[in-house]
Write a structure and sequence with these properties.
Oligomer: single chain
Structural class: mainly alpha
Helix content: 40-55%
Shape: elongated
Largest sheet: 3 strands, antiparallel
Strand order of the largest sheet: 3-4-5
Distance between the termini: 87 Å
Number of domains: 3
Amino acid sequence: MDERLAGLSRVLKEHLESVPFICSPSAVVEQLDQVHVIVQQVAALQLALVRQADALGVAAVQGATSTVAWLADRYRVRPGTATAQVGLARVLDADCPVTAAALAEGRVNVEQARVIADAVAAVPVEFRERADKRLAGDAAEFGPKQLKALGGRILEMVAPEEAEARELAALERAEERAYVGRELRLSDVAGEARVRVTGWLDRAAAAVVTAALDPLCAPRGGGAGDVRTPGQRRADALVEVCRLAAACTELPANGGDRPQVVITVGFDTLRDRLGSAMLDDGHLVSATAARRLACDAALLPAVLGSDSQVLDVGRQQRLFTASLRRALVLRDQGCAFPGCDRPARWCDGHHVMHWADGGTTALDNAVLLCGHHHRLIHHGDWRVRINPGDGFPDFIPPAYLDPEQKPRRNRYHRRE
């Protein structure tokens, strides 16, 4: 037995026997701190010896099939424990010299070293030195749990451009897998008068489906009296979209604007096919997917009503055009009826003066209304007008609600 290690063993045994006689709490803490450092140093020595045994082929000399098998048999530990020990020894030796040195000095514990080694092994070889140095420094402040979180994004810290490139590549691979794995199944349920609909869509395709269904998922009557669950409304919307598509080969208009997928994407991203774009539900899609979706979209100027968009289509057209609807959304931002919180997607364009009565299809003769308030204006005693002073809609209540019939406005969407 090595004399130095034998001496250390004797000292440790003596200290173990003296523990019951320690009466001072501060002395316990002091010795516990010292022992913690020694334990890490001994662990560093053990890992170095495991690495050396692995390099020298000790397992083969001893008749074992591998270093892992030899360690598990000789020291009666689980194969998983031996595997982790050999793996940590190899990574510390090859890629984590800073962490290995910190472990040998007791500044990093074995759990931290294992987390760091796993994180460093996951980054490209050319960035491992920087990752090792960064995480070894962080170990002075963070435990294994926090270090694991930092290690998960260590490439962003030491090589942000490489991290972004790898993230985008992973996103594109995930999109390809999702596309290849797309499917839709309609399965009869034995003994029941219904069919189970299941399937998978990639995010871009799901965004298209969601945009088509949303206008038809709004509660009927503004929500009052509609007892359908959200799931039932979605099921009805899917059937309605398919029925309309089968009847006219085109999806229904959404108050004049066909169902759309909203993508937030920079012009450079769209042009150069680099980077990513965001769907309106917050999920990311690659630039390639954004370009594919953008093939069916128009690039509009930030201010509607410019020379490229004719908003006042006059008497020649009864239905609201897509550009006019966008102008309505920009102005009203949702149902314009006082107190209504329905978003623009749930609303239709309404002629203040009916088209049949000579009203024009123009911004100064239009207002956004949800289904409930659209019916209320058509069949009730409320009136609506466009204020000539500022161009916003005013609603006039019936006299039985307000004898003075003071104009009212929606303050929910647009606060003044």
